[in-house]
Amino acid sequence: MAPATPRFVVPIDLKKNPWEQNAPLHNRWHPHIPHVAAVNTGEVFRVEMVDWTGGAIKDNDSALDIKFLDLSTVHYLSGPIRILDNDGVPAQPGDLLAVEICNLGPLPGDEWGFTATFDRENGGGFLTDHFPCATKAIWYFEGIYAHSPQIPGVRFPGLTHPGIIGTAPSMELLNIWN
């Protein structure tokens, strides 16, 4: 028998901004951010995500989106997701959570990624002395490989990664940090 289809708990509409999603995205860990879904221990579920810029970087040849990226509104996160034990009790600060990523890949119709260097005028980066202006290369996925029209002749296993997975701190811990 085939495994059950994972339940969608955070779907993403690529035509909407992060703050317009049905389950609004956030960009910081804080105990006061309300959960957008709840799942049971052992449940297989699906979470969709946007790239770290919230879709601000576009699939085109221009690096102007990199040059003028608002770095105060990045690192969008899907969730929070409340985890319930077998008795329906939510996970608490200090509980150990194990997460198994069962499937990972780009959203259908969004099979591309990018690499970039930031412009010196927008914070730069560790390569600013070598690349003072914003640059961008778009990478298209074909199977496990990625290729870029901006860097002809280069092809590599372009495996995606889940980005950031974590838990919100307790208010007590947050007060210690701040």
UniProtKB/TrEMBL annotation:
Gene Ontology MF: a single term: hydrolase activity, acting on carbon-nitrogen (but not peptide) bonds, in linear amides
Pfam families listed in its UniProt record: FmdA_AmdA (PF03069)
Highest taxon in the source lineage: Eukaryota
Family matches, as PANTHER family: FORMAMIDASE C869.04-RELATED (PTHR31891)
Protein name (database record): Formamidase
Organism per entry: Glycine max (Soybean)
